[in-house]
Write a structure and sequence with these properties.
Layout lengths: L7 H25 L4 H29 L8 H23 L5 H25 L3
Helix pairs in contact: 1-2, 2-3, 3-4
């Protein structure tokens, strides 16, 4: 039984739901609330959903185009999309505190990429054809 990376069409429903709820919720939140405690947390939550839904088809495409052994599963594609989803709201959170620098942006991206590479190495070491 040969496994393949999930197709772009198979991740489109989840991507569309995350995209619409995330970006629609962010638009409603920004236009209709004040930046108090709970709307601020909701902003980060919706930001994760919005960015994850936006990049999910692109990550699926990249996993199809540059497939490896073992091929990426739906869980791997979703996890890689969530890394992007967590990264950009984290940058927004750091910018609110005025501590975001280009160096910190790069180091955070490299750290998340390193975690993903190590997770993929672990999956590869446990894979049996």
């Amino acid at each position: 039984m040969e496994t393949k990376s999930p197709s772009i069409v198979s991740v489109l429903p989840a991507s569309l739901i995350l995209f619409l709820v995330g970006w629609g919720g962010l638009a409603g939140l920004v236009l209709n609330t004040l930046p108090t405690l709970w709307p601020r947390w909701l902003f980060f939550f919706l930001g994760v959903m919005a960015v994850t839904g936006t990049v999910l088809p692109f990550v699926a495409f990249l996993n199809i185009r540059f497939s490896g052994q073992p091929p990426a599963t739906v869980g791997v594609v979703l996890r890689e999309s969530l890394w992007f989803g967590v990264y950009f709201p984290t940058l927004a959170w750091l910018q609110i505190g005025r501590v975001l620098t280009p160096t910190l942006t790069l180091l955070l991206a490299l750290g998340l990429a390193l975690i993903e590479v190590l997770l993929r190495f672990r999956e590869k070491s446990q894979w049996k054809p």
